[in-house]
Amino acid sequence: MTNLADTIEEPADGADAELEQLLTEALDAPAIPRTLLRRLDLAIEQEWGTSPRLAHSAAAGVSRRLVSGARWARSLPLAAALGIMMVAAVLFRADSTAFAWAQLVEALAGQQVVEVESGSVRRWVALSDGLISEQSGGVSCLLDVNQQVVLHRDRGTSHIRRQVLTSKLTDDPEHLLLAVLGQTALGRTVLPDGSVDGLAETRILHEESKFVTSDGQRQIQLDVQFQYGDAGQVSLRAVVDPETHLPVSLQIQADAVPARFMTVTYPSGSARERRLAEFPTDMPVIDVSSSADIRTAMHDSSKSEIEPAGAAESLVASDNAAPVRLDVAAAELMTPPLFGAASKWKPVSVVERSGGEVVRQLNLILAELWQQNGVEPAAPATDETLLRRIYLDLAGRTPTVTEVRRFLQNGSPERYEHLVDQLLNSPDHATHLATMYRTFLIPEGVDLAAFGGVEAFDQWLSDQFARNNSYDEIVRRLLLAEGRLSRSGPLLFYSAAKLDPDQLASRTSRVFLGMRLECAQCHDHPFEPWTQQDFWSYAAFFARISRPQGKLENVSTVMQVRDVERGEVMIPDTDTVVPPRFLNSVEPLAEEQADRRRQALATWLTSARNPYFSRAAANRVWGQMFGRGLVDPVDDFGVENPPVSPEALDLLAGHFINSGFQLKELFRTTALSRAYRLSSGADTVDHDRVSLFAQMNVKTLTAEQVYDCITVATMPSGAGATGFNVDRFANTPRSEFLAQFRTPAGRPTEYLGGIPQALTLMNGTLIDGATGLSSSGLLKSLEAPFFTNEQRIEVLYFATLSRQPTAAEWELLNEFIGETTSGVELRENLADILWALLNSAEFAMNH
After folding, report:
1. What is the Cα–Cα distance from 469 to 664, expressed in whole angstroms?
2. DSSP label at 639?
3. 241 three-class SS
4. Contact 27, 81 (CB under 8 A)
5. Less crowded by CB within 10 Å, the N or C end of the chain?
6. Cα dist. 521→343, 526, 575 in Å?
7. In which residue ranges of the chain is pLDDT below 50?
8. Between β-strands 139-144 and 131-136, what pairing exists: parallel, antiparallel or unpaired?
9. Taking a C-beta distance cutoff of 8 angstroms, is the pair 125, 60 a contact?
């Protein structure tokens, strides 16, 4: 085999400093990442010219050792080490073009706007936003993959033509880039003749790269061949800047079509700004069925100008193509008007979108909302703040010291997204979610001790969430539960409502439909269009559950929930029997369904066509994460209480249906939104900023969260290194604490605790044990001699507030506890700091 050292030609001026640094970095790494190998490949080639082409088989053995561990190479001479690096570079070069193409796509996707010109056609692309725009001859065309629409506008007209795509296009950046390149090579517009199907199928066939010199500068030449639908093969040659990985120029050629040269620029400004400039929101929109209709309509001079639609007109075009006003954040969702008479809401319009598409659209809707209301959003939350917030909202607890360190030391740009997924799949999420939904379903103060206590209901709910059962299935199981009340589980819901049809109607309508229907129990609703008849016709679905006659003060464990053949409800103080009727129907329940009322209700209530169910679920999750709902209070939907953003609510509800009613998708989408990641602090007070979700609300911790956070905070330092979950069931000290601390139910953004709660935190058994010198596991662990006092303070802050002390806090703490403090005095000072942190407002709040 060729001697590795003999293949290296020494550079004229010795090893380049950058190359030396890369080699040192590689030799220090326990495992060399592919990105570093690629950088070495480029750096070596810049120093020595074209890399030596060694046999792949000879390189493979050495490279495997290099990639698996590089520390052994320290003992080799420099020439040999360089040779090994070059072998790895050569081996890596075998598929380096694929890596280079991926880097090119990634670099272009990182640009807000990429402008491409070829001849008289100018295009701009926003790969991350799923937008392709084309301007030629006074005509503008925009393909929006997220919304699956094509917009056309002729500069000589005052309206916009829109075609809804009939075939699904992906928003993958690589696919969009290849679509632009393929259309350019074929000399086509973004909207081909007949349909957009030509954009649907592309695939890479071959790619390779090499260094070239252009105008005295070293650049990368990337050659790519790809199949473009049925049009055949297309060849691309890109001259790429080695530093930015952005193309300087492009040359594209399709089979039997002359080559086309493309200039590439990267202008300032966002894609949204460009979109609004080309397709203003105050221009009317006409829907057409095909691209031919668009071309005919735009070039038929006999057609008269269409006046802008009035503000009161529908957001959806009628069948005869009447004009509608385009609103980027609303009209493109193509959903019917959400609010009118509450009894006439329309089903949610479902559009198949990926989770990433939904997050981007949600961000767009909220940005438009802020702009319309003149609200400047708060700055993004710090990493430490966001870490604590997401743990509290998804897991119901603060992170351990180890979890804090692990997150802050993780350099991955996707570390937050990975953390969200990790928490959503954790046991703590299931048990926390169970606690939250139990508080919705079972009113505070209801004594269920004889039936096993609320913990039995929590356990049942937790099992449902842990198994990843869909929300509609969980609700059906709850509504259709049967058996003796002593069996607990879902039957505790019926025990808490005392089997009363009116209580069951009130609770289920609040939780699952988002409306306070009980306000129409005694008379027609004073503010909403619900009538007394509506309430009792809904309660009639629960009228045929076995129960003694008359009003029940208590229920017994020997009683059971089962359907019987008889049972009706009557309007109070009348003899009027009310048959069951769905809330969005004018007709009573069909005769064939009358004997299975609960089954009929469960089927209707959890249906994707139910106009209330998915919206109520989406709003409740949003309210849990933000402290207030898009409709607030979350269980008070109505004409007089519309949502802050009907578009955002319907987007989330549609995604919920599309996901198969998976609550995790709602939590994930909300957690990844820009609004959720904003700070709760701002230099000025602006109530609109908070109410429009341009600034995070500060939420108070529930009693359960307070206990769990204290438990986590006072664990021995470093606990949780291999995973940690809170013990929430069969935990007697926890139950005793909750009985003392639980505050009246209210808004999560309002602290309603009083003197008993304050005294429990200051002097209660839990705090006393957590901060006691002889009982605190955390304080005992900090006695280890390898800790400095500064590190001990840092651990206390990580454990309680999930952050480092501020500069002002460090100054105060250094005065209170110096580096030389030790012994009993040190332990007492640390205990005082821990007690103060646990009793601080910051610890009791989720911000």
Report:
1. 10
2. T
3. coil
4. yes
5. N
6. 16, 11, 15
7. 1-15, 30-32, 34, 47-81, 84, 87-99, 192-198, 290-343, 718-722, 755
8. antiparallel
9. no
For 412-470, where are the alpha helices, taking DSSP H only? Answer: 415-424, 427-441, 454-466
DSSP codes joined into one string, 597-636: HHHHHHHHHT-TT-TTHHHHHHHHHHHHHHSS-SSSSTT-
Q: What is the pLDDT of residue 559?
A: 83
- Contact status, residue 138 vs residue 278, Cβ threshold 8 Å: no
Residue 840 corresponds to which tokens in the numbers above? 């601080």
CA distances from residue 706 to 285, 481, 491, 623, 758 in whole angstroms, order as listed: 53, 33, 29, 19, 12
Least Cα distance to 162 among 170, 153, 171 occurs for 153
Category of 374 on φ-ψ map: left (φ > 0), alpha (ψ -120 to 50) or beta: left
Which pairing describes strands 284-288 and 160-164: parallel, antiparallel, or unpaired? parallel
Helix (H, G, I), strand (E, B) or coil at 508: helix
pLDDT of 3 reads 40
Give the alpha-carbon dihedral of 824, 826, 830, 835, to 10 degrees. Answer: 40
Looking only at the bridges linking them, the beta strands covering 139-144 and 149-154 are: antiparallel
User: Which pLDDT value is given to residue 190?
Assistant: 56
DSSP alpha helices (H): ranges in 267-354?
271-278, 291-299
Mind giving me the DSSP string for 42-72? HHHHHHHSSPP---HHHHHHHHHHHHH--GG
Q: Report the distance separating Cα 513 and Cα 342, nearest Å.
A: 12
Length of the chain: 847
Measured between alpha carbons, how far is 258 from 365 in angstroms, rounded to an integer?
43
**pLDDT attached to residue 375:** 94
Measured CA to CA, the distance from residue 415 to residue 408 in angstroms comes to 9
Q: What residues form DSSP beta bridges with 325?
A: 284
Dihedral (Cα; 459, 503, 470, 670), 10-degree rounding: -90
